[in-house]
Amino acid sequence: MTVLDEEPEVHKGLAGVLADTTSISKVDAETNSLLYRGYPVQDLCAHRTFLDVAHLLWSGDLPTPSEQQALSEREKALRPIDRSLQTLLMQMPTTCHPMDTLRTAVSWLGSEDVQEDDPQANASKSLRLLAALPTVVAIDQRRRRGLDPIAPDPSLDYSANFFHMTFGSVPEPEVVRAFEVSMILYAEHSFNASTFTARVVTSTLSDLYSAVVAGIGALKGPLHGGANEAVMHMLSEIDGPEEAEAWLSEALAAKKKIMGFGHRVYKRGDSRVPTLQASLEEVAALRGADDLLATHAALAAAMFREKGLHPNLDYPAGPLYHLMGFDIPMFTPLFVMSRITGWTAHISEQLAANSLIRPLAAYQGTGWRQVTA
Ligand SMILES: CC(=O)SCCNC(=O)CCNC(=O)[C@H](O)C(C)(C)COP(=O)(O)OP(=O)(O)OC[C@H]1O[C@@H](n2cnc3c(N)ncnc32)[C@H](O)[C@@H]1OP(=O)(O)O
Ligand SMILES: O=C([O-])CC(=O)C(=O)O
């Protein structure tokens, strides 16, 4: 028996609910566009670096040449992690997911940070995380292959240094650029689940590291960031383009969600997909991966025919990261390396005009009853 007299208006999953205002990014499903602080994300991908975009998201403007240089120098200086964190990383079970490693590493970095929780300290914590997370991810990828860490190289820029720390070499400029483009596209997407999670934690006046740890937890799930890994697992199961249709029919008949398709906000296609798809095609051509690309295209065509659903950003990201040489479980940590910018920009915005986030729930349980001894 329920205690509800009339059906309340419940917005399941907060779908369609405006929870606050933001000036960080605009996701416009109608025009299929995404603006970071007013700039179309495609133009940022064509002309700017990931560090420029981090500056833009944090400060509201693209950096001047001197700001660019100062940011790059600080990022390079903050890459090394201390021995105690390295020891902790090496002791984490290799059976745990790399998102668990990353979540633990951020928690550890928070426990040693003695700075206050004011806006200036939060800006320095944000940059510290942006700079140190690639070092953590690279160490984790290497230890899972039985390899020793490689120290950051301050002569290399952000993405090239990350390849160097992970694989011991820097690939072709086109591959480095494709990685940079993926970092820019993954950086920010308004009130998505992980950003909203970070804002909820921040709204209690908790600290930045706690909010980021919670954001990592939310991103890990396959309905959000974890989908980039699920996409590659799925593509690995399909034995060539001619098998895509049959594989999909079977999966849909079994009522499975097809990872990398659909979106809560975009219903006519994800504005970021064409840009990352172009990067995927460029890297696939370099790696001679025609078959993978054909399977990827065949599945997308079949999915549109069957369900009318478009791919989201995780759909090109999965195979792109695979072709770059990363193991599948490392894909969502790569998303974190980028989204750290969006999360921390939102943490600052939340703090600047805070209100505790605490919605209501319509109670549907058992009505009043007497406790008996
Ligand atoms: C970077 C990112 O985080 S992008 C999102 C990454 N996540 C994924 O790719 C996971 C797969 N996709 C999904 O699960 C969903 O599309 C979500 C969670 C992203 C969006 O979900 P919602 O906006 O809540 O859409 P919802 O789940 O209501 O779907 C509407 C209908 O489309 C179906 N549908 C949506 N996405 C999919 C999918 N990927 N595969 C199969 N069916 C789907 C639903 O089953 C539902 O059908 P029904 O009306 O017959 O029940
Ligand atoms: O906006 C969303 O719901 C998910 C998404 O695409 C993102 O976080 O990049």
TrEMBL record:
Pathway: Carbohydrate metabolism; tricarboxylic acid cycle. Keywords: Acyltransferase, Transferase, Tricarboxylic acid cycle. GO terms for molecular function: citrate synthase activity. The keyword Ligase does not apply. InterPro entries: 2-MeCitrate/Citrate_synth_II, Citrate_synth-like_lrg_a-sub, Citrate_synth-like_sm_a-sub, Citrate_synthase, Citrate_synthase_AS, Citrate_synthase_bac-typ, Citrate_synthase_sf. GO terms for biological process: carbohydrate metabolic process; tricarboxylic acid cycle. It holds the Pfam family Citrate_synt. The active site is at 263, 314. It comes from the Bacteria. One of its GO terms (cellular component) is cytosol. It catalyses: oxaloacetate + acetyl-CoA + H2O = citrate + CoA + H(+). Coiled coil: none annotated. Belongs to the citrate synthase family. This is Citrate synthase.
